[in-house]
Amino acid sequence: MLKRAGRLLAAVLLPFMLASPTVHAAELVVIVVPSAAGSAPDIIARILGDELRQRLDQPVVIENRPGAGGIVAVMAARNAASANNTLLLAQAAVVAVTPLTYRAAKYDMERDFEPVSVVAQTPMLFVANPPRGPKCLAHAIAQARARPESLTISSPSRGSIPHLSAELLQQATGTRFNTIPMGTSAQALQSVLGGDSQLSVDGISALLPMVKAGRLRALAVAGSAPVPGLESLPLARDTVPGLQVSGWFMLFARQGVPAARLQAFNAAVNAALQSPSVVEKLQATANYPVGGSIADARAFLSGERKMWAAAVQRAGLTPE
Fold first, then answer.
1. Is the dihedral angle over the CA atoms 33, 34, 35, 39 positive or is it negative?
2. pLDDT tens, 75-90?
3. Residue 289 and residue 199: Cα distance in Å, rounded?
4. Choosing a second label site near 20 at 20 to 30 A (CA), which of 76, 140, 227, 288?
5. Element (H, E) at 59
6. Beta-carbon contacts of residue 310 (< 8 Å; ≥ 6 apart)
7. Does the CA dihedral 55-76-71-35 come out positive or negative?
8. Distance in Å from the first CA to the final CA of the chain
9. How far apart, in whole angstroms, are the C-alpha atoms of residue 220 and residue 124?
């Protein structure tokens, strides 16, 4: 009787043993984000996470790991136990600039991760203080040539994509502006609003409300094409050929993920980015969907790393 009871008990418990927390944990997809809740990368990760949850039929959680210019999050994703179910949603600076400007950044995105897809991008926007700044980008360039460093461009922190965008403008035009990276986007914005700097550059979302309110003049958006809903904004490339600069957000999988699993992630992301509701949510934050194949993502990553490495070198930035 005891043996029979034991066999019955084992039969009852077996399904629960197979569905143990360890198995559930392995099925959970974790998207690591190198910034706090409410930030742009976090918002995009949550929009994407909701879609992946449905399309992969797996639970998805967002793990915010801010700190050290993104290093904390990248290392957490790189060292995660599960290669099959760990993703990293990282912005351009974390991917392409931090490894060049922080000694503690001991990672290489092309060596340690597999690109899944470029999720979204937001072009940089050059703006001016209406009474004190230039009327257009061409006028700004002409003044900087005639009187080097007579115009000040404020931007967020040293080594940020907006800061390096100002450096790229100088490099592309052979001009010298007085480029001042501030501590935050808010400080850079206040500087140009107050007239301490004549120009500023940042992602569209940070500057657009002040442009619409008439407190800033939009000089040029550094996108490859007119921005949906903002087609009247001038393109920087029409004044400075080749000047196309965007912040972007890219999804990575851990190195070692099986090819089929990587392809499944890519297919789910592309399907999500074709959803009208996702497009609408992204555009509401001034981010615009990209997508594409894994090969497209690899080529994009390689090109962006080379471009930002050259910008960092020419700007004379050294690792801290």
1. negative
2. 999 999 888 999 999 9
3. 28
4. 76
5. none
6. none
7. positive
8. 72
9. 9
Q: Record the tokens describing residue 82, joined without a space.
A: 């599960």
Query: Which candidate, 42, 10, 56, places its Cα nearest to that of 270?
Result: 56
Q: pTM (2 decimals)?
A: 0.87
Residue 37, sorted as left (phi over 0), alpha (psi -120 to 50) or beta, turns out to be beta
CA 193 vs CA 120, 161, 217: distances in Å: 28, 20, 10
pLDDT in tens, 3-32: 444 444 344 334 333 333 333 444 899 999
DSSP 3-state of 290: coil
Q: 247 burial class (0-12, 13-18, 19+ CB within 10 angstroms)?
A: buried
Q: Catalogue the E-assigned strands of the chain.
A: 29-33, 60-64, 86-91, 113-128, 152-155, 178-181, 199-203, 217-221, 246-254, 288-289
